[in-house]
Design a protein that fits this description.
305 residues, EC 2.5.1.58, elongated, Serine Threonine Protein Phosphatase 5, Tetratricopeptide repeat, mainly alpha, EC 2.5.1.59, prenyltransferase
């Protein structure tokens, strides 16, 4: 809080409220060294909770507490109750959230509160621009991406979201969050064979540009499965990368997945190359996960019988 902070105990408009100190019991093991200002605000907050007061001054008190402790979910929850009880201007509340989010962009409570307010307000016009600003600062902010999914679903704003991920992947094709969000959008509706094929080709181009990034490989497999297409449909693409001597654990992993899928579909023994690839990954290409690849190999060996 500012050095100009005036304790609530010294504010004439709060003279009718008796603060309630925190009770940690007679012998607290590790008492928290709260600041004087925070202790003061919380003492008055507990008093309001006890009397269930929902007023403009209570709203101001929650704002002071949130400024000091933006993760205090009880205060956020009570603030929502006050807002709705007073039928307060929720546009102003979004302004308040904007100011907090500028410094607390990864705070779950901030995003949840915004979701509650926007849901109540029923308006979305400022939400995607707000999220865009946050993602410009940190393109992998989990809370922002999660909230974007909610906004798009709540208000049906799917139309331009594929284009949005196009732009992000041009800037950084290794943006795993953008790939994840792209799949969320793409899988939200049934897709035609033409759309599936177009998305497969898009993904192949991105994969060629960054074959050591796991996201496009995972995305490629997911889109093929979404279209009920076997991984073998893009075998020639993967084989071309092998012929170009691309050293990527994800390329080898794709082949292993393809051989496994083929063996299970045809009820035939798995291609022995899959076992050799597991060994190559364990011994040379992806040594840090050697235990996983040996485990994978042991499972695949059952498909040789």
């Amino acid at each position: 809080m500012s050095v100009e902070y005036l304790p609530y105990s010294q504010r004439p408009e709060w003279v009718d409220v008796t603060p309630i100190p925190q009770d940690d019991g007679p012998n607290p093991l590790v008492p928290i060294a709260y600041s004087r200002d925070y202790r003061d605000t919380m003492d008055y907050f507990r008093a309001l909770i006890r009397t269930k007061e929902k007023s403009h001054r209570a709203l101001e008190l929650t704002a002071d507490i949130i400024e000091m402790n933006p993760a205090h979910y009880t205060v956020w929850g009570y603030r929502q109750d006050i807002l709705f009880s007073l039928n307060a201007d929720l546009h102003k509340e979004l302004d308040f959230i904007d100011s907090i989010a500028s410094e607390q962009a990864k705070n779950y409570q901030v995003w949840h509160h915004r979701q509650v307010v926007v849901d109540k307000l029923g308006e979305y016009e400022r939400e995607l621009p707000f999220i865009n600003r946050i993602l410009e600062e940190d393109s992998k902010n989990y809370q922002a991406w999660s909230y974007r999914q909610w906004v798009v679903t709540r208000f049906g704003l799917y139309e331009r979201e594929m284009e949005y991920t196009d732009d992000l992947l041009v800037i950084d094709m290794r943006n795993n969050s953008a790939w994840n969000y792209r799949y969320f959008i793409f899988s939200s509706f049934p897709r035609t064979e033409e759309e599936i094929e177009s998305e497969v080709e898009f993904t192949k181009r991105k994969t060629e540009m960054a074959p050591n990034n796991s996201s496009p490989w995972s995305y490629l497999e997911a889109v093929l499965k979404m279209g009920n297409r076997p991984l073998k449909d893009v075998e020639s693409f993967a084989q071309k990368l092998r012929e170009q001597k691309v050293q990527s654990p994800h390329l080898l992993s794709f082949f292993i997945d393809m051989y496994e899928e083929e063996a299970k579909t045809t009820k035939q023994p798995i291609n022995s190359e899959a076992l050799q690839m597991c060994e190559d990954l364990a011994e040379r290409v992806d040594v840090i996960r050697q235990n996983y690849w040996r485990f994978r190999k042991s499972n695949l060996e059952r498909l040789c019988k």
